[in-house]
Amino acid sequence: MLSIKQLQAFIYVAQSQNFAQAAVKMHVSQPALSSAIKKCEDILGGELFARTTRTVELTKEGRLFLPKALRLYQDYIDLINDTQAVFDKQQGTLHIACIPSFAEAGLIDVLAPFIQQYPTIKIKIEDVVVESVVDSVLHERAEIGILFAPTNSDEVDFLPLFDDEFMLVMAPQHPLANVPFTSLQQLNNCAFVTMNQHANLRVFIDEILADAGIYVDYVAEASQIATLANLVKANMGLAILPALSKTHLLQQGLVCKSIHYPGLQRSLGMIRKKEANISVTAQAFWAMVSDMQRA
User: Fold this and answer.
1) Cα separation of 17 and 263, whole Å?
2) Which InterPro entries is this protein grouped with (predicted)?
3) Which residues does 218 contact at the CB level (< 8 Å), separation at least 6?
4) How do the residues of the chain divide into helix, strand and coil, expressed in percent and rounded to 5?
5) C-alpha span between 55 and 49 (Å, rounded)
6) From CA 133, how far away is CA 119, in angstroms rounded?
7) pTM > 0.85: yes or no
């Protein structure tokens, strides 16, 4: 098998057609260079150079080998340079899976300091529901996930960013839109639209309502908050949604009211797979956000 040094020796001699000049360029002695060329020819099975006392010329086989040798050597140089650039965080991709509400409302604020420090890093964002964020991280399609604290965190590390409140959301024409909202008891027997049955947020809201002894009538389900907003706008029912979505919901012309109930808040943060060998790019992002949280 040819070594990179042997390949380099062949290229330098071929380009200069002079062993002495090639030896100087490689910073080796002329005998060492000659030995490298001899080993190269032994491995390939024939002479690459026609040597006389005055000239060094490529043989026909050497001329055929040169362009391929140049491509292979350049690929090696590019590989080294590109890998060094990744370790220096001058190249690379930061792949994040993020719940849509935060991707729209707050992700850029978290990303901005990282982008400013590493402007050549590419960012890939996968905006999906909570369950898909966890799945993407566990199956290493994304290295970092941003979501509400997962119910089963045994397989991930969780870095809290902040606690988010929940709001009661309704159409302007809903009866509750024009009266003060003071208690969950006002929601008893109301029509509701909600996340799909096994969604992380649906389970959380169901537990809160059950704890308060409240029965609601789920008339529609969806997997995205944007879809629920459209159902609420059509006055199909009320919804309890994260305050993260408030700006978007108000832009939709919906009414948002605070809910004061113990425990009706969720911690939003970042996850990474435990014991996963994440890239230096992802490590740098995680460390930067961690430092920001401690500051």
Assistant:
1) 79
2) HTH-type_LysR_regulators, LysR_HTH_N, LysR_subst-bd, WH-like_DNA-bd_sf, WH_DNA-bd_sf
3) 192, 193, 194, 237
4) 50, 25, 30
5) 10
6) 25
7) no
Share of the chain above pLDDT 70, in %: 97
- Considering the four listed CATH numbers 3.50.50.60, 1.20.1260.10, 3.40.190.290, 1.20.1250.20, the one that applies to the domain covering 164-265 is 3.40.190.290
* pLDDT tens readout for residues 213-259: 999 999 999 988 999 999 999 999 999 999 999 998 999 999 999 99
CA distance 191 to 166: 18
Q: Are 286 and 144 in contact (CB under 8 A)?
A: yes
Other beta carbons within 10 Å of 64: 12
Cα-flanking dihedrals φ and ψ of residue 189, to 5°? 70, 10
In the predicted structure, residue 91 carries a pLDDT above the cut 80: no
Superfamily name with CATH number, domain 93-161+267-294: Periplasmic binding protein-like II (3.40.190.10)
Query: Is residue 168 within 8 Å of 214, Cβ to Cβ?
Result: no
The answer to whether domain 93-161+267-294 and domain 164-265 are alike in fold is yes
Which of 102, 130, 97 has its CA nearest to residue 203? 130
What residues form DSSP beta bridges with 165?
A: 265
Domain boundaries, the chain: 4-87, 93-161+267-294, 164-265
